[in-house]
Design goal:
Blueprint lengths: L2 H19 L8 E2 L2 E3 L29 H16 L7 H14 L7 E3 L1 H10 L3 E4 L2 E7 L5 E8 L15 E5 L2 E2 L5 H8 L6 E7 L7 E6 L1 E4 L3 E7 L4 E6 L6 H14 L4 E5 L8 H8 L7 E7 L5 E4 L11 E6 L6 H11 L4 E4 L7 E7 L5 E10 L21 E2 L12 H21 L1
Parallel strand pairs: 13-14, 14-17, 17-18, 18-21
Antiparallel strand pairs: 1-2, 2-19, 3-20, 4-11, 5-6, 6-7, 7-8, 7-9, 9-10, 12-13, 15-16, 15-20, 19-20
Helix pairs in contact: 1-3, 7-8
């Protein structure tokens, strides 16, 4: 076996060993070439700074290699007998890995080859070229894979179009994306700034697919935006855009500045926030909830464990709050909103959140590829699983006060304009609370 074959064999072994163990922790459990990274890699939605690199090149001695022998046998026969020459051995290896992960029937577990993983780390650095939309893989009621718009970045060109969260992408530049992986669709949409991409999307409430053209641009993603929403009534406004490594210091700075300016109440905006690092969600939740669990996590075969609030960090309970969510609020933002709702700390307004209740762990493999594996469920403080459909077939956190969703047939409504209207509706609900 030559060196290249050994590398391929090790990569396959690492993945199979991981699958055999199933759900694990992100605390340095070595599994072959791949390794579950440290606790910072426990993410509710992948963001930059969510992992560290640590590698272990040895396959555990106790590994049963029978399954690998079958895979190796198929691989060699394909190389030797397939009617066309196989030009790229890695294509076979990565295809086998993707097939194994697809068998889990989990849209959040996926494999990224070295280029895709490098692009992922670039895209989540806070500065990138694109259309400014967060994509997610979903499975519809018939078990079909779909790529949907999870949220829209206000800084990006998509916010200036009719593109909206929950839109299902069916074509990119006239290419049918049915059955494509999330990464493949992202690669089709990605391109140099200044160039145009054409999306065909399906939207609930419309009879025909909608064609939307977006000109790609350079996007700088902000983590926290804040201001005094009403100087006279001292209503503060904080929009948390991502739960990455900068969220906690920027949130602390925002709260400190608004407090200095005399903030007496707060509109906390989690709309279009796709989530981030689990530990950051706990820290942000602790800024408003002083004790008890912010969230529960439940790994396979284990009892649910609480991740409790960090005492002494919460703002005064005299500061009344309204928290805004929508269909783009996912994972970590759902954790915080769920904690605020279950503890009665804040009124939740807007639309149903995205409905993602799984935690992913990043496992970097020996050739700089990576696997994102769902390793736990998260539950609200009252142990609600927001990933389960309700009686109306909807997932996600339910707001206490529903705001109207944008008219699906109103094609001239820009998403950033609609968001501004939602913030004003949230302010109106806060004024009602203050009047009581």
């Amino acid at each position: 076996m030559n060196q290249h074959q050994q590398r391929v064999f090790i990569a396959l072994a690492a993945v199979l060993v991981v699958m055999a163990f199933g759900a694990g922790t992100a605390t340095g459990l070595g599994l072959g070439k791949g390794i579950f990274l440290n606790a910072a890699a426990r993410v509710a939605q992948i963001t930059s700074g969510a992992f560290e690199h640590k590698r272990d090149y040895d396959i555990p001695a106790a590994t049963n290699l029978n399954a690998l022998e079958v895979i190796w046998e198929v691989r060699e026969k394909v190389k030797q007998q397939f009617v066309y020459p196989v030009k790229d051995d890695n294509k076979l290896t990565y295809g086998a890995i993707r097939g194994m992960l697809a068998a889990l029937d989990d849209p959040y577990t996926r494999f990224l080859d070295p280029k895709e993983f490098k692009d992922f780390r670039t895209d989540t650095s806070g500065h990138f070229d694109g259309i400014g939309a967060v994509l997610e893989a979903k499975t519809d009621d018939k078990g079909r894979d779909q790529v949907v718009i999870s949220s829209i970045l206000p800084e990006g060109p998509a916010a200036k179009t009719n593109l909206r969260p929950q839109d299902i992408i069916i074509k990119v530049d006239d290419k049918n994306v049915d059955g494509m992986t999330l990464n493949a669709v992202v690669n089709l949409i990605r391109g140099p700034r200044g160039t145009e991409v054409k999306l065909l999307v399906v939207r609930k409430g419309t009879e025909k697919p909608i064609e939307i053209k977006v000109v790609r641009a350079n996007i700088e993603v902000k983590v926290v935006e804040y201001k005094m929403l009403d100087d006279e009534k001292k209503i503060g406004y904080i929009w948390l855009r991502s739960f990455n490594q900068n969220a906690v210091p920027e949130m602390n700075a925002a709260i400190a500045d608004l407090t200095k300016k005399g903030m007496k109440s707060l509109v906390f905006d989690l709309s279009m926030d796709p989530g981030g690092i689990l530990d950051v969600a706990v820290e942000v939740g602790s800024m408003f909830v002083d004790n008890g669990p912010i969230v529960w996590t439940k790994e396979r075969g284990a009892e649910a464990k609480p991740l409790n609030a960090i005492p002494g960090n919460a703002i005064s309970k005299n500061i009344k709050m309204v928290t805004l969510i929508d269909g783009g609020s996912a994972s970590a933002s759902e954790i915080v909103a769920g904690a605020l709702q279950d503890t009665g700390r804040s009124l939740i307004v807007g639309q149903n959140s995205f409905g993602k209740s799984k935690v992913q762990t990043i496992c970097e493999l020996q050739d700089d590829s990576a696997m994102f594996l769902s390793t736990a469920l998260y539950l609200t403080p009252k142990q609600r699983d927001i990933g389960i459909k309700d009686e109306k077939g909807k997932r996600g956190l339910k707001p206490d006060v529903y705001f109207p969703e944008p008219d699906p047939n109103k094609t001239d409504l820009k998403f950033d304009t609609w968001h501004d209207e939602q913030v004003q509706l949230a302010k109106a609900e806060l004024l009602k609370l203050l009047a009581k």
